[in-house]
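Title: Prediction job returns without error message
Component: structure pipeline
Severity: low
Priority: P3
Assignee: unassigned

Description:
Job completed but the reporter wants confirmation the result is attached to the right record. Sequence as submitted:
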Amino acid sequence: MKRVHVVVRGEVQGVGYRYTMRMVARDAGVTGWVRNRRDGSVEAEIEGTPEQVDEVVAWMAEGPPGSHVREARVSDAAPAGSRGFDVLPTE
């Protein structure tokens, strides 16, 4: 299993980014969470097979229609064995 922490910056709030990501994540079969941050970015942790995680990270770098992703920073995280994919409250 692979788990990554991702912070996406740009025009990523107010465009349905988190809720679209939840659908993308569930379709890809990954677990984890996504949330808005007070600085205007979106933060997420994604866990699954390397292929599943890479698929979701690639989507995050593009985002949903109406968004404009300027930067997506990805770092490794320790697998947590989480279940499901959640939209969390703003940090």
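Comment from assignee: result matches the submitted record. The chain has a mean pLDDT of 97.
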